[in-house]
Design brief:
Length: 756
Amino acid sequence: MKVPLAWLGFGTQIPLQTQPVVNDLNPPKAREFQFKDGPNVFSPKDAIELGRPGIGIANEVGDLALVPYNQFSFNDKTDRKSFFIVSLNADSTRPPLYEIFDGQAFWITNRTLGHVVEDNGRLTINAVNIEFSAGDYHFTVSLSVGSIPTKTASGFRYSAEDGRLVFLDHVYPDGNLTAVAEHDRNWENRGNSALVYDTTPVRFWDSWVGPKSASLFSVRLSKDVLSQTWLMESDFVNLLQSAGHRLSVMETMSGYAGTFDVSNGIVAYIAPDLASYKETPTKQNVYTVDITGRTKSTMLTSGSQGRTHGPVINGDGTKIAWLQQESEDFDSNNKFDIILYDLETRKRISLTSDWDRSAESLAVSDIAAEESLSQKNAQFSEDGKSLYFTAGDHARNKAFLIPISDGCKPLVLTHGIGSVDGLQSLPNGRLLFTKSSYTSPNDLYILSGLQGVQTHLDSAFLTSEKQITHFTESDLRGKNLSPGEQFWFKGADDLDVQGWVIKPPGWEKEQRKKWPVMLQIHGGPQSAWVDQWSTRWNPNVFAQQGYFCILINPTGSTTFGQNFTRAINGDWGGRPFVDLQEGWKLVVFAEDRPARRFTPCVMKIDPERAVAAGGSWGGYAINWIQGHPEYEFGFKAVFAHDGVFNALYDSYAVDIPFFFTTAFGGLPWNETAREVALKNSPSSFVHKWSIPELIVHGSKDYRLPETEALAPFHALQQLGVPSRLVILPDENHFVLEHGNSLKWHYEILRWFDKYL
């Protein structure tokens, strides 16, 4: 049922007749704005054109890795997608080599790659042989091994012991992969464009749910003994059809590869709980099925849990681990625990239930991925006695190890700067991972000497990590990117709160110049400013344009324990803004606060040239600050990207039903939840808005519909507050198209420059 027009953004706000005191209605005429540029400046254009390495995936013996690498050029108007082959040998000096372009890729053997490319509406799989010796690479001519009758298959995983390829694809209710093309033609020629729904979800992230659903398929792929060529059969087995399962819309439409694993004739996968789907649509179970599809699926979860993610199978196929939220209610600040299931004893245990960090933290509000390689975020160790996994801790994503026995505590393996991802256990006690930081995109690293890690479980384990690749090092040389400086202070309820400062180039201790200051507020709210590279909200890009950037992780942020994350529930407009105010005062005005761990920069910051920017929940924060001038931030201009304006409306319109249930204490028609939503809604305080505001919104943002941009823009215009609206018709909650990204940066920096 559609919400009446009167509810779309204005139905619950206070009338606009009460006029606020407007900041600077007639600013000086703005000069023609241009980015700061030059050989020593990391400009927005540089950031967009910088190469984007993906997650490295090693072969079974651990001597080569495959890394996707994308690079865009404005001059050539090309977006080159390729794959690097990287030697993982410790003594290798051979630079990465790329010979494979576009498409998808996966390992078939230690020296054979499967390269998937689109060809006339189908996907052709080619076998590419690699000769590698003495540090030299050589590729043979790729040979076609077969094709898939669609162009939408992804997540390819080859099981050598079974000689079968497993992948994900979307099919119609008959589950027949070979009939998809015909069904597609019939659907396109149905004579209308109507989409009809009897149940939710109806759309997710940036797409409407169509007639197809995701399933897993298995097909024979083997090497002919006589010809020594790889051949793929055409009998595609739908592994989920007999059980009536389908893969989660949330997982598959967002591009996650962590929906299944394959080993020793077993496929482990996650799927929605069909019995309780209407009541708890985000509840997911973990199942196993024979890789040939000859047996019926077996459920491994208890049935009383919430979301699950990322199943992994150990080397001998006797144990399976996965990530799980215990609550059946949708709650994006519920932590993920590691669950271990023994297939022989049929017993399950939680390995991290007493740990207050979330294994492989998943911020549902920020789901978006476009992976061309299948990857895992948790893996069993080589000896099968431990699990490697990632988790956020104090604004960095770190690698951890935990023994697969009850009562053991996680042991942190990575230290220092940066955040890690894509862990992979390698032979000889090695761990491959991908790491990025505020100063560098992804590179591959190897941690060695893990054979004896069990003896260090009660103490700090220190070992050196070796950097394998230097993908963008030469491009960033001389750009003087800031690694970020942490600061801590006492926030709401006298709790420790963390933040970062990113200083502009040219910052010197003795220099008397004062710099404009920008407060950046992250989304989520169950997210964090962590020490990792970003192609969208990159603080160094703004710092390089001359801004002293302050990034604070207020109440609700992840990586600081579950109590801190959950404390935002029902209090969106409360504790987080105490934290933001206290952190702002500490850095900008050097006000003495207990437990301060930071060198004040007050002599270098100009509080009269202060601005603020935020996206998603950060956009909510910008709109909330607008309505609360008593905070006295003193911002001369603000920017909100895809933010919340009317919290009650969003509780109805969000793409994931129940998304705001925990945040506001119930469904939106519940009296208490309704009161909480209105109490915490920026629309309830719009009559106080006065700061010049730039609003940017993507029309395909189904998390927060574009009416959340139109409504505040209309209000600002009626209030007489300087305002600007930028609509990006083809973008979702993120700005992904390269030209739009450059325009996004231009509009933000132009807007701030106009008022400073």
